[in-house]
Amino acid sequence: MRKNQLESRQRFDLRMLFFFAVTPLLLGGLMLHLLQLQWTQHEKLALQANENRLNIVPVLPVRGEITDANGKGLAVNKIAYRVLLIPERVKKLDETLATLADALQWSERKQSQILKRIKSSRPDRPVLLDDKLQWLQVSPIAARLHHLSGIDVEAGSYRYYPYAELTSHLIGYLSLARKSDLDNGFLSTEFIGRTGVEKSFETYLHGTPGSQQEEVDAHGRRIAVIKRTPSIMGQQVKLALDIDVQKAASEALGERTGAVVVMDVETGQIISMLSQPGYDTNRFITGLETEQWQEWLNNPDKPLLNRATQAAYPPASTFKMLTGLAGLGQQATLATGHTQCPGYLELADRNLRCWKRTGHGDVSLHSALVHSCDVYFYKLGDQIGMGAISDEAQKWGLGEKTGIDLSPESRGIIPALRPNMMAAMNSSSSRRKHWFRGETMITAIGQGQLTTTTLQIARLAAAIANGGKVLKPQLLADSESELMHQVDVKPAHLNMIHNAMRDVVATPGGTAFWALRSAPWKMAGKTGTAQVVKMAQDDDKKGKLTAQQVLKRHKDHAWFMGYAPYDNPKVAIAVFVEHGGHGGSDAAPVAAAIIRTLAAKEAPQP
Amino acid sequence: MIRALRSLDWPLLATMACLIALGLVTLYAAIHQGDAALWRRQLIFLSIGFSVFLFLCFVPVRVVGLASWPFYIVALLLLAMVPLIGDVQMGARRWLDLGIMNLQPSELMKWALMLVLASWFASREADSLKDLGVALALALAPASLIIIQPDLGTTLVLLFAATALLIASGLPWRWFGIAVTLSLASLPVLWHFMHAYQKQRVLTLLDPQSDPLGAGYHVIQSTIAIGSGGLFGKGYMQGTQASLHFLPEQHTDFIFSVLAEEGGFVAAFILLLLYTTLITRILIISSRAHSRFGSLVCIGIASVFLLYIAVNIGMVSGLLPVVGLPLPFISYGGSALVTMLAALGLVMRVAIESKDHIPWQRPGSPLV
To answer: Which residues form the Penicillin-binding protein transpeptidase domain (chain A) (predicted)?
Structure first.
């Protein structure tokens, strides 16, 4: 028994050794593991702890303001509050959104839109929930912020356009950053210029975001602000535009659709650029509803179209100066001679008509321009040929983009016809086999396939006024002139055109006499009336238009272009009235209103 | 009285005092921004625990041995009642509502099983199949009741303590090898019966980054806390992970991260050194014990402490899956503190008896 007991005791002691060995082994292993964490991995984990603790929140820059030449705000910033949400920090999304919806009176629709926006964003990036809020609206939320984890109320500013519809095409609009913008380093809460000056001068206007380093707890609640790098406000952009001139042009145009461009003759600065109808650019800031966008898109008046730069129309009789200059340049006999206008011109089996059925009788280049005789220019065009006409048009900057800092811009169309192109058009492989004589004649009076933008016509008027300098249109107030072409034209030829354009306004038979006879500045100008019946009939067939619209669409486009004062030109004006009727009675009065406004500004203040 | 004081095991008492002091200091840091009442409650639990400790210093080990069977039976009955009338908390049925307090019978069972196995093997060795069979039945009955609660952590503690006692009682290594092999082989079966959240915990352990905001979040945050503490720590009450609430359960299961973040490796090292001292001291007392029962009880207690420490620190530092085991003397919690102090009371009694030469052995017992 004792021996047994001894053996048992010995065996027990041996087992005891096992436990004595296991304890330091196990705890020593733990120590090594801790040493690994706290020594070799210390730096990495300390950094992570810091990242945990410190949250870097972007501070959005204030966008630079856009003003007109006199410092009147066209795009300004207003103080307001916004509510942001960081998805990964929100504990109970439904409850939180319900609280916010209640406080901010969100519609069901808005709630679902917001939910969609949250679901599609990155969980660690703030999502903009509501914007342009006044303090009274956000104060109930601000008071409960410590219960609403992941929600932030931020004071900021929003864009406001005091002359929204008046300047919509020129100034453009903003919208929240899209996915592609995020790839370019923008934040999802930033507004970015989409059209107009807001887009063209985005890099100046945008400014540089700052950041704020915040200490946060595990629930993402801000404990303290550690460091703040302020954002840098975007630069101011001062346009050459005069909003009063723009207003005058808009009022003169009234409800009609159309475009007006007023340009400084020497610098190319844009004093007014109007396209009607406009649209309310402020709508984009609150988040444009799809319905509104669709309504604008489907509106037959195309409010989203910038008629001054994007839309090209036949220039009609405003083109006749170029046909005349081409004739003078070619030393065509007709350019210095006379011809008879019986009211029509026989060509093969059809008649080309003059706008004046009874005819102008004996006409020279001067009288043909003053009275806008079509027959004279049919004949002149026929004499010099299509190549000469298109060469002249290109010299004066038609058929090419003006290079204005607004996109998209239309080039317009100049049918260019030179011997080799003629051959191509006459070859049997070409779909279009022949260029008819008649087409050259139609082009000579600014109709047919020829199209130009209102901006191009304004620049043409400036170039005629300043002695053949084709300038780049400038949007900024203090920009210097930029010469694109110097047209090689004899001063004597240009003088003939000047005199004719003066008499269009100055003589009782001139097409713009009645509209402009009482304007404070003596003007030189040219009216135009572009036929559209053929084009409108195509539209009717699609069955899109109401009876009234069809009637309207049969009316001709009205043009006026000119410069003033004619003896010392300062401004060039182009007015286009879509389906306006007649240049003299419908477009020229708009120019008169503009001249009156400009003259009133120059008059010494009492 | 002087004799009684002299017969106390002072190294054990000193280690215990150091651990308790370190625990109170750490707990204060963990909750200083939150509920100061918790700290006061911990002091109350401490005084209760110390009373139990003192009481058990005066209870002869022999009496404990005799009481172990009834204790086990009561614990087993309570455990059996849990599935029938237990309270459901946090998705698990583990508690009995006793009116004045919620009792978790599995807590009692840990100690009851240890005592009953020590008592069973006090007079025999674990090398006969019959004796082993009884021991396995004693262990597996409560284990199966606890695993259905479900409470994987406590089940593992139970099985681990039983295994430790079997090893101490002379279970042939061969059999132990077979048992380990069988357990490993049964892992797929166990996996099949595991709850989704338990599986998730195991998977998360293998790759915490796979679910950084879900199950892996706590482990990642506590690993960051420990590692960012570095060698010397961020300073007392300066831990950012702790004060900004990135640590989960930072005053209970995850309190070690607070200590390691603010005290660095130095503090963690001191704590582990204290634990090593404590367990080694319990094993020394076990080896000097005058009864096999006393020895086995000490080994059981040392094993449970070792398991708690290794699992808790392993879990918060990303080595083991997350199972809710407290860190002895450091974690907040009344029942853990009281039962651990009680266990040390038993150990102390074993130490006192070995010095006083108090005999209790029945004639014919294998150990004198």
So the answer is: 258-595
Contacts for A46 with CB less than 8 Å, ≥ 6 apart? B227, B228, B230
Q: What is the C-alpha to C-alpha distance for residues B278 and B19, in angstroms, rounded to an integer?
A: 9
Cis check for the bond before B150: say yes or no (omega within 30 of 0): yes
Dihedral sign for Cα A211, A215, A221, A222, please: negative
Q: Can you state the percent helix, strand and coil of chain B, rounding each to 5?
A: 70, 5, 25
Residue A528 C-beta-side C-alpha neighbours within 13 Å: 32
Q: Are A27 and B278 in contact (CB under 8 A)?
A: no
DSSP B328-362: TTTS--HHHHHHHHHHHHHHHHHHHHHHHT---PP
Residues of B in contact with A42 (CB under 8 A): 227-231
- List pLDDT tens digits, range A533-584: 554 444 444 555 555 665 666 788 999 999 989 889 999 999 999 988 888 8
Instruction: With a cut of 90, say whether residue A369 has pLDDT above it.
Output: yes
CA dist., res. A218 & res. B257, Å (int): 15
Q: How far is B306 from chain A (nearest CA, A)?
A: 7
Q: Which amino acid is at A361?
A: G
Indicate if the pLDDT at residue A341 is higher than 50: yes
Question: Would strands A191-193 and A174-176 be described as parallel, antiparallel, or unpaired?
Answer: antiparallel
The angle formed by the CA atoms of residues A69, A74 and A79, to the nearest 5 degrees, is 130
Give CA–CA dist B133/A534, Å, rounded. Answer: 108
User: Which among A9, A38, A39 is the nearest to B367, CB-wise?
Assistant: A9
Cβ within 8 Å, pair B287-A13: yes
Q: Which of A133, A134, A200 is nearest to A173 (CA)?
A: A200
Distance CA A324, CA A366 (A): 9
Superfamily of domain A243-602: DD-peptidase/beta-lactamase superfamily (3.40.710.10)
ipTM of the complex: 0.88
Q: Tell me: pLDDT of B359 over 60.
A: no
Which of A86, A91, A161, A98 is closest to A127 using CA atoms? A86
- Report helix, strand or coil for A224: strand
Residue B125's nearest CA partner among B187, B74, B190, B172 is B172
Query: Which pTM value belongs to this model?
Result: 0.64
Task: Give the residue from chain A lying closest to B214, CA to CA.
Answer: A88
- Cα–Cα distances (Å) from B26 to A43, B19, B336, in that order, read 24, 10, 16
**pLDDT tens digit string along A5-26?**
677 777 788 888 888 999 999 9
Letter for the amino acid at A314?
A: P
Instruction: Give the right CATH number for A78-157 from 3.90.1310.10, 3.40.50.150, 3.40.228.10, 3.90.800.10.
Output: 3.90.1310.10
Q: Are strands A127-133 and A344-347 parallel, antiparallel or unpaired?
A: unpaired
Residue A105 above 90 pLDDT?
no
Give the torsion sign (CA, A579, A583, A586, A587).
Answer: positive
Closest residue in A to B288 (Cα) is A13
Contacts of A8 in chain B (CB under 8 A): 125, 170, 366-367
State both tokens at B190: 């166990």
Query: A204 near A64, Cβ under 8 Å?
Result: yes
A361-363 vs A339-341, strand pairing mode: antiparallel
Give domain limits for chain A: 78-157, 243-602
Helix (H, G, I), strand (E, B) or coil at B361: coil
**Strands in chain B per DSSP E:** 87-89, 92-97, 102-103
Q: Which of B229, B269, B303 sits opposite A31 (nearest CB)?
A: B269
